[in-house]
Amino acid sequence: MAADQRIVIENCAIATVDANDTEYASGYVVINGNRIESLGAGRAPEGLENVVRRIDATGHLVTPGLVNTHHHFYQWITRGLATDHNLFNWLVALYPTWARIDEEMTYSAAQGSLAMMARGGVTTAMDHHYVFPHGSGDLSGSIIRAAREMGVRFTLARGSMDRSEKDGGLPPDFAVETLEGALAATEATVEEHHDASFDAMTQVAVAPCSPFSVSTELLRQGAELARRLGVRLHTHGSETVEEEKFCHELFGMGPTDYFESTGWLGEDVWMAHCVHMNDSDIAAFARTKTGVAHCPSSNARLAAGIARVPDMLAAGVPVGLGVDGTASNESGELHTELRNALLINRLGAHREAALNARQALRLGTHGGAQVLGRAAEIGSLEPGKLADLVLWKMDTLAHASIADPVIALVFGAAAPVTASFVNGRQIVADNRLLTVDEDAVARSTREQAQRLARIAAQG
Can you give the residue ranges of the Amidohydrolase-related domain (predicted)? Predict the structure, then answer.
């Protein structure tokens, strides 16, 4: 929407998720171009010029758009496999299939992953893509193209692996890169696609996969590369007890100390999972402001454990939410993670207040913006911030009898999305995407999943 063209949203409950957790039982939001111009209690100001649309949002809760901080889009076409495995056995079962993805499959899978998130209130997505089989085409470009067409704000964490089966790793030899090749391709992706501007729709992070699939040199040089280019760093960390054992056996230290020794702690770093963290690990993350992407459903699906999110928050660690790849979270939705994060972190005796509804909403919005390095631009509803926001319909059978709309959103069933705006542009209306044909995406993902299964069986 052009600057000085306004959309006025009125008669809605508002959870701003600002520093003071300001909320309005009935209020308004004014969007001007791609920014939030004003918001507050009651009716919008009189005399606004160039109002191109007014939305009566009676019965709705308006929140910042959800921010996804960890995902693997390509896994959309391998959902429902290896459903009773722990992480390592799951990887062993699926890597031979993943190693045969190509550009067409990756584009279709990205469409499926993005569509499922966007129609459920995600306005900023990320993808940690680290599988680059030889001769598979422009996988990074295909993922970025899918995000651009969907209309979501997007961070591509350009992943890499250089430790294959011959080096004691898990991926097939033809599915990994050399150290030099991975660094060069990552730098080229940053140079071609990263946008550092305030309202950037596409950013790129440097993201070697995990301690057990990359060499120490790839981690160390990857960190140096990211800081030279001025972009963020992302990887998996402390996900399982097996990873803890691996790091002690190979490096003589736990994952957090190993990451610190390679330059991988800092306010420009965020890590997925961080399930097996002791007090010293949490203190190191808090001291360095290293971020965490909490993926409760995936951690439960793979029996990895329960991350100490309340302890991390109390220590001052930035924490956001992640869907994770849909081969370990088949629903592919982030708004259900608000509820799952709250419930899973309450498991155990006397933990009924470990997380509350507003903390869960903050994880999915402002917390995610923090770990992606974009808290100045998104993650809360404040004048001057980018117009990324969601209208949740709260007056249906599923929620109407719950007086507090934030509690209804988090504790209740997944709420319908009446409208979702990204950069001031509406991309969802009445739970349907406006930017792509959902039915066509469904057909494409089914076809590509079947094609991949055939190729993997032949291989």
Answer: 61-408
